[in-house]
């Protein structure tokens, strides 16, 4: 997953969302990604159907809300238009506008089908494909 930074601030503010979005993904960064990989491994071993985007710094796990693992410090995400964002907060003006700006900043060849995650501190654009969760691959990337 690559972080996209821009000198322009396109997010004016965040406000509490009521009701929260339905969680469809969970994001772990750094040490939280390592814990999320272990929790995902356990959920898959128990039969959960999960998909992942794996990067050495980030892990995104996608699936039904009930199947998603829980990890301290991870962020639950839901669909806000075509972007994933925090389930509990809404970005203003909109997640779709921030997504469009991030893809445009990435260049004219940006994949419009790319997985984009809008967070208060940055926009993440998936640099790899969404694949079925593979415990062996998770262990190799996030071996602690």
Question: Can you put this structure into words, describing what you see?
Answer:
The protein has 144 residues and is an alpha+beta fold. Helices cover 24% and strands 30% of the residues. It has one domain (2-141). It starts with a strand and ends with a helix.
Estimate nothing, just give the exact number of structural domains.
1
Number of strands: 11
> Helix count, per DSSP?
3
State the low-pLDDT regions, or none. Answer: 1-11
Biggest sheet strand line-up:
1-10-9-7-6-3-5-4-11
What best-fitting shape do the alpha-carbon axes yield? globular
- From the alpha carbons, calculate the radius of gyration and give it in angstroms: 15 Å
Domain MoxR-vWA-beta-propeller ternary system: 13-86
Transmembrane segments: 20-39
Keywords: Membrane, Transmembrane, Transmembrane helix
Protein name: MoxR-vWA-beta-propeller ternary system domain-containing protein
Secondary-structure blueprint of this entry?
Layout: E1 2-4, E2 13-16, E3 25-29, H1 31-45, E4 51-54, E5 58-62, E6 75-80, E7 83-86, E8 89-92, H2 95-106, E9 116-118, E10 123-125, E11 131-132, H3 135-141
Parallel strand pairs: 7-9
Antiparallel strand pairs: 1-10, 2-8, 3-5, 3-6, 4-5, 4-11, 6-7, 9-10
InterPro entries: bpX5 (IPR045548)
Keywords: Membrane, Transmembrane, Transmembrane helix
Transmembrane segments: 20-39
């Amino acid at each position: 997953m690559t972080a996209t930074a821009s000198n322009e601030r396109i997010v004016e503010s965040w406000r509490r969302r009521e009701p929260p979005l339905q969680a469809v993904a969970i994001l772990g960064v750094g040490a939280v990604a390592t814990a999320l990989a272990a929790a995902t491994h356990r959920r898959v071993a128990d039969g959960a159907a999960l998909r992942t985007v794996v990067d050495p710094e980030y892990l995104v796990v996608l699936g039904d809300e009930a199947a998603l693992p829980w990890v301290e410090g991870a962020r639950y995400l839901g669909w806000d238009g075509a972007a994933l964002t925090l389930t509990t907060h809404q970005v203003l003006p909109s997640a779709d506008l921030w997504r469009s700006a991030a893809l445009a900043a990435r260049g004219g060849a940006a994949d419009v089908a790319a997985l984009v995650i809008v967070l208060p501190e940055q926009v993440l654009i998936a640099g790899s494909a969404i694949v079925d969760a593979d415990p062996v691959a998770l262990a190799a990337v996030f071996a602690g």
